[in-house]
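Ticket #4471: structure export looks truncated?
Reporter: QA, pipeline team
Priority: medium

Steps to reproduce: submit the single chain below to the structure queue and open the exported record.
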Amino acid sequence: MKKSNFLSVALVAVALFAGQSAFAQEGKMMKEKTVMVGGAEMYPSKTIVENAVNSKNHTTLVAAVKAADLVDVLSSKGPFTVFAPTNAAFEALPAGTVETLVKPENKEKLQGILTYHVIAGKFNAADVVALIKKNNGKAAVKTVAGSELTLSLKGDKVVVTDANGGSATVTIADVAQSNGVIHVVDAVLLPKM
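Actual output as written to the record:
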C-alpha cells in the first residue's frame, strides 16, 4: 500500500472512531435518567454547576455562585446536597438585595449565604424524610457555612427552615448530579447575620 493511501485509511479510521466515541457519549447522555429543571434536562453525569447553568429558573443562583467564586467548589468531587433557590425566590428578597450581594465588596457575605444552602454529603429525598422521622419530625443539619438548617415535613413536602425562622419548600427533589444532589426550593434561606 502506498504511504499516501495508508495515511488516508488511517485518517478515515480515526474519524470513524471519533464519531463512534461521540455517538456513544451522546447515547450515554440519552439513556441517563434526567429531571427537567428550568426547561432543561439535568444529567446525573454532570456536576452541579454544569447542570445549573442550563436551568432558566436558576440564572440568578448561577450568577451569584460566579460572583462568590464558588464555581470550583461546586464543581469539585463533593458530594454535596444543594437546596437551590429559583430566580423567583431571589426576586422575593427586598429590592436591591441581590444587586448589593453580588458586588465584589460583599463577596464574603454572599459566600456565607450560598454555602448556607449546601450540606456536605449526598442526601436524597428518602434520606431527608428518614432523618426527619427519626428525629420526631424535625432534623437539624449542619451546612457548609457552619450554621444549621432545620428540616421538617408539611404534608408530603420537605420544608427547610433557616436560623431566622424563614422557610423554603422543596418543589423538585432528587435532581441527581455527578457530585451530589440538588433539591429545588422556593425561597432563599438566610443565616443569622
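Status: closed, not a bug. The export was complete when the record was re-opened. Leaving a note from the reviewer for reference: The first strand starts at residue 35 and ends at 37.
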